[in-house]
Amino acid sequence: MCAFSLQSGALSSEPSLRMRLVDTTDLPARPEGTATESYVVTEAPRYGTTVLEPQPRPRAMPLPAPAARTRRLVSLDAFRGLAIGGMLLVNNKELGPWTPAELTHAGWSGGVHLADMVYPWFLLIVGVAIPFSSRRGLWRWRYALEVLKRSAILVLLGCLINSSYARHPLFDLGVLQLIGFAYLGAALLYWVPMRWRLALAGGFLAAHWALVRFLPIPGSGAGMFTEGQNAIAYLNRAYLGRWGLANLPAVLPTTALVLIGTAMGDLLRSELVGPRGKVRLLLVTGLALCLAGWLWRLSLPFSKSLWTASYVLLAAGWGSVVLASLYFITDVRQRRAWAFPLGVMGANAITAFVAPILVNIHVLGEWGWRLSNGKFVPLHDAWLGFFLRHAGAGPGGLLYTVSYLLAWWLVLFYMYRTRVFFRV
Predict the structure, then answer these.
(1) Backbone angles phi and psi of 332, in degrees to 5
(2) pLDDT of residue 28
(3) Are 4 and 21 in contact (CB under 8 A)?
(4) Is there a contact between 304 and 105 (Cβ–Cβ < 8 Å)?
(5) Residues 351-369: pLDDT tens digits?
(6) 40-62 mean pLDDT
(7) Where do the structural domains in the chain lie, given as residue ranges?
(8) How many helices (H) and strands (E) does the chain have?
(9) Could you give the 3-state DSSP secondary structure of residue 44?
(10) Which residues of 315-354 are buried (b: 16+ CB within 10 A; e: fewer)?
(11) CA end-to-end span of the chain
């Protein structure tokens, strides 16, 4: 390897400068880990030639660590799309008498339905994605700023949705706000080794459990666990609700859920475990988490509204089983075609969540349509009524639900084909 070097020579009695081609293989080896070095070769006829040692220049910022190119996981996109599709279905179904119990949220002390798994699964996916989106070569403060920015966007989008429902500016802890705060805590803790992250997740769940079990409630004592009388409801009424922070304690278990997801993401990124070994570990982890949640329910029952530890572990366990199944089918066996519809929704998850809600409120709810009898009704009622009149309550509601989901899938498919992605 050759390079040009600035030389110092002699002309008459005064030094002068000239260029000489220098073989850099003769120069000292560059110290490992330094940024950029400059080699200076000085040549003077009277004094001979001197080769200076390399002088490392101070780094302005750490260079990004060279990361191996990781193949995008089809299973993760499919799982994200499954969660988003589940949210759309649960929130917009109009099945009437045909509505299965699993597509409704379980009542208080009513166990856990499939509809109750969708939200925690999305939180779990947020955690699984953190290892794939984090750049460890950044300064910690730059990484923290990126995390804060993403969290703030999620919180603001959640406030936009809740303000649209309320028809006035409103700050509270809705779905996206809770996701934003849980992501904030878990992403900032991602630099902690995995075993400590899992220990922190267990500590957060134990702290929330202790709060619900042992916080004294005036007039009722500690340990009350009914829908209207429990520690979280008391804190919301007495302190948090007035500031728009009702259910703030849920940040602890939801952050724990995202931290569990980061451990699963680390496993999927690891090169120390083979693909089938990852499937086995995810399955075993899922079954262990389900068992832990099932046992913890003996002390504190499943509750989606309070995010009890038993509910969080059960949801994480089933989520791990679903992820293992999707990973085995799409990334190990390479059977991917069937997952394409889910991947379309997963590629624009934020749009698929926010846009339908805003359209429901401001378009389907506020815009109207005049029927043949002259009655003016909201677009939603006109759309649903069309199917109900022509197919009856059950089939008509099913046709409306299918047409609604298909309409939004086509919108997302168009965005996918035109490479339009809105990501936080």
Answers:
(1) -95, -55
(2) 42
(3) yes
(4) yes
(5) 999 999 999 999 999 999 9
(6) 43
(7) 2-56, 105-333
(8) 13, 8
(9) strand
(10) bbbbbbbbbbbbbbbbbeeeeeeebebbbbbbbbbbbbbb
(11) 45
